[in-house]
Amino acid sequence: MERKLVVDDRKSINPFLSGRPWTAVGLVETEGQSCTGVLVGPDLLLTTQCCGLNRQPDGSIGWLRFTPAKYDGKYPFGTASGKWWFWHYNDIGKKAETSFELAFNYVLVKLDWRIGDKVGWWCFKHLDCPDSWSGLRKIGYASDLNNKVRPYVTENPHTVLDCEWHTNSDGARSVRRNTDIWAPLYGKSGDVIFGMIGDTYCAVGLSTSVYSCKETGFGDGTCSQASGGPALEELIGCVNRETALCGHHGTVTTFDHLLWKGDPDPV
User: Any idea what the Cα angle at residue 38 is, between residues 84 and 145, rounded to 5°?
Assistant: First the structure.
């Protein structure tokens, strides 16, 4: 098979110089791992569940720190901590493997203060697949480039190979997408896949894993998988409007559904 050249076109971007919306992308740190996250509300973080939902042996959720616009060890906008967690399917653990898990490999984290008032936040839009996912780019902190000290953005658009829809027991509908975005083996979890919706940058999904795609003829035979879909867009809207109606307290992990446990957060 004649291989199609896929060049690693990631370029570092300095959020301090570039400004919004890039300042709303940042580094997510939990116990023993880190990944990329993006603000989709003034105090609402979107990241991958396998990174951002840090389960403890006693069933609780461990600490999470979000540092927007972190660049070469500098973070002038400060940090925020996770306070509440929201999801559609919570049996993923540290690694998403099946198509179903990959489709739902996202978590929303309500932060302890409105850091987005300083750095801004992104809109999130669900796009049908596969055609409307063509021409998208991504941004994230990559471990293979300077060990996640800077965000990197792809310069050129990439193409979607295929999509798979999945529906959970609540009727939430999410999608796993295979793309030809150049994919190193490690350090890309939570990279934000985005495009221009009208005149606004909007996130449309998250990089969740890599897989072997030698049969497609792309690049080095390693491709990206991403999650997104209408269920995620609806969940973001719900949490931004009515926190107590669409999620649960971060210390409660004994159920899978969108139920509220604990006292509502008035903030």
Answer: 125
Beta bridge partners of 176: 164, 227
Matching residue, tokens 């035979």: 221
The model's pTM is 0.84
Q: What is the pLDDT of residues 105-124, one digit of tens each?
A: 899 999 999 999 999 999 99
Say whether 235 sits in a helix, a strand or coil.
helix
What's the pLDDT tens digit per position in 179-226?
655 555 445 688 898 888 778 889 988 888 766 665 554 445 566 778
Range 193-202, long-range pairs (CB < 8 A, 24+ positions) = 193/136, 193/137, 193/138, 193/226, 193/228, 194/122, 194/136, 194/137, 194/138, 194/139, 195/127, 195/135, 195/136, 195/137, 197/123, 197/125, 200/123, 201/21, 201/122, 201/123, 202/122, 202/123, 202/124, 202/125
117: number of Cβ within 10 Å: 11
Query: Quick check: 228 and 164 in contact, CB under 8 A?
Result: no
Nearest CA among 75, 99, 95 for reference residue 227: 99
Q: Report the candidate in 71, 104, 222, 100 with the shortest Cα–Cα distance to residue 161.
A: 222
> Of 45, 44, 26, 22, whose CA–CA distance to 35 is shortest?
26
CA 62 to chain centre: 18
- Alpha carbon distance 57, 236 (integer Å): 28
Helices and strands per DSSP (H, E), number in the chain = 5, 16
**Helix or strand (DSSP H, E) at 178:** strand 173-179
Q: Is 146 helix (H, G, I), strand (E, B) or coil?
A: helix
Q: Can you point out the beta strands (E) in 79-136?
A: 80-86, 107-111, 123-124
